[in-house]
Amino acid sequence: MYVCLCNGVTDNQIKSAVQDGATTMRELYQETEAGSQCGKCCKHVKSILNEELLQLAESAVKVA
């Protein structure tokens, strides 16, 4: 699903960027350019970022 219509960024692209090491909105912006135009998507992008980071943390705890 498209999250940032201005730059054509999907939720899968954001998730992939997090999997590749992006941990902040700034890093996501640099990787995907999401939120660089109108900014209306920033709240949703941040939500996806937080969900993915939580999942990574939970999987790291299960492994340890």
UniProtKB/TrEMBL annotation:
BFD-like [2Fe-2S]-binding domain: residues covered: 2-51
Q: Where is the signal peptide?
A: none
Q: Which InterPro entries match?
A: BFD-associated_ferredoxin (IPR052371), BFD-like_2Fe2S-bd_dom (IPR007419), BFD-like_2Fe2S-bd_dom_sf (IPR041854)
Keyword Nuclease present in the record's keywords: the answer is no
Q: Which cofactor does it need?
A: [2Fe-2S] cluster
Top-level taxonomic group: Bacteria
List the keywords (alphabetical).
2Fe-2S, Electron transport, Iron, Iron-sulfur, Metal-binding, Transport
A Pfam family reported for this protein in Swiss-Prot or TrEMBL:
Fer2_BFD
According to the UniProt entry, its GO molecular function terms are:
2 iron, 2 sulfur cluster binding; metal ion binding
Is this entry keyworded Transport? yes
**Which family, according to the similarity comment?**
Belongs to the Bfd family.
Name this protein carries in UniProt: Bacterioferritin-associated ferredoxin
Q: What is the organism of origin for this protein?
A: Marinomonas mediterranea (strain ATCC 700492 / JCM 21426 / NBRC 103028 / MMB-1)
